[in-house]
C-alpha cells in the first residue's frame, strides 16, 4: 500500500497528465493540447516545491496553459509548419496538387463533377468546361477532397 501512495502524490499525477497530454498532441493535429501538457508540468513542478491546495493547482494549470497557448502557439506554428523559402501561409507553395496533371476517369461537365486519377488515387473533380474521359487536365486547386481542374493547354 505504501508503494501506491508514492504514485498518488499530486506532483506525480500532474507530471503523468502532462506527459500524456504532450504525447496526445502527436495524435491530434492543431498544436493546442501540448500547452495543457505544459500547464500540467508547471503544476507538477510547483507541487514538488510547495504544497498548494487543489484550487491553487487548478488556477496554476489554467493560467499557465492559457498564457503558453496565447503566447507560444503562433510562434511555434510558424516555426514548425511554414515553408522553407519564407512564403509563410502561401497554399500553393505547400500544395502538392496545384499545377500538376491528372487523367480524367469519368467525364466532367459544369455543375456535374467527374473523377480524375492523380498519383494512383481517384479524386472527385469539378471544372467550368466539359472534359471527356481520358483527357489530361491541370489541377487548379484542391478543395477538401475535390480537385478543381481545367483542360491541359499542351495536347
Give a short summary of the structure:
The chain is α+β, with helices and mostly antiparallel strands and 155 residues long. The chain contains 5 helices and 5 strands, in the order αααααβββββ.
The DSSP helix count reads: 5
Q: Report how far apart the termini are.
A: 78 Å
Walk across the major sheet and give the strand order. Answer: 1-2-3-5-4
Helix content: 40-55%
Number of strands: 5
Low-confidence stretches: 85-94
CA radius of gyration is 25 Å
SSE string, helices as H and strands as E: HHHHHEEEEE
SSE topology sketch:
Blueprint: H1 2-7, H2 10-27, H3 33-49, H4 54-81, H5 91-94, E1 101-106, E2 114-118, E3 121-126, E4 136-143, E5 146-151
Parallel strand pairs: 3-5
Antiparallel strand pairs: 1-2, 1-4, 2-3, 4-5
Helix pairs in contact: 2-3, 3-4
Q: In words, what does this structure look like?
A:
The chain has 155 residues and is an alpha+beta fold. It folds into two domains: 2-81, no CATH class; 92-150, Nucleic acid-binding proteins (OB fold (Dihydrolipoamide Acetyltransferase, E2P)). The chain is 47% helix and 20% strand. It contains five helices and five strands; from the N terminus they run αααααβββββ. The chain has helices spanning 2-7, 10-27, 33-49, 54-81, 91-94, and strands at 101-106, 114-118, 121-126, 136-143, 146-151. Strands 1-2-3-5-4 form a five-stranded mixed barrel. Strand 1 and strand 2 (114-118) form a beta hairpin. Helix 2 (10-27) packs antiparallel against helix 3 and helix 3 crosses helix 4 (54-81). The radius of gyration is 25 Å and the shape is rod-shaped. Residues 85-94 have low confidence and may be disordered.
Amino acid at each position: 500500500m505504501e508503494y501506491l501512495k508514492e504514485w498518488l502524490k499530486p506532483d506525480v499525477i500532474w507530471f503523468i497528465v502532462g506527459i500524456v497530454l504532450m504525447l496526445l498532441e502527436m495524435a491530434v493535429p492543431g498544436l493546442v493540447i501540448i500547452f495543457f501538457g505544459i500547464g500540467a508540468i508547471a503544476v507538477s513542478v510547483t507541487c514538488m516545491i510547495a504544497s498548494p491546495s487543489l484550487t491553487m493547482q487548478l488556477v496554476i494549470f489554467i493560467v499557465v496553459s492559457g498564457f503558453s497557448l496565447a503566447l507560444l502557439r503562433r510562434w511555434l506554428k510558424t516555426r514548425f509548419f511554414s515553408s522553407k523559402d519564407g512564403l509563410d501561409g502561401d497554399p500553393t507553395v505547400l500544395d502538392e496538387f496545384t499545377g500538376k496533371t491528372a487523367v480524367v476517369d469519368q467525364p466532367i461537365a459544369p455543375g456535374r463533377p467527374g473523377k480524375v486519377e492523380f498519383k494512383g488515387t481517384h479524386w472527385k473533380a469539378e471544372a467550368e468546361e466539359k472534359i471527356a474521359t481520358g483527357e489530361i487536365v491541370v489541377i487548379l486547386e484542391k478543395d477538401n477532397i475535390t480537385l478543381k481542374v481545367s483542360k491541359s493547354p499542351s495536347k
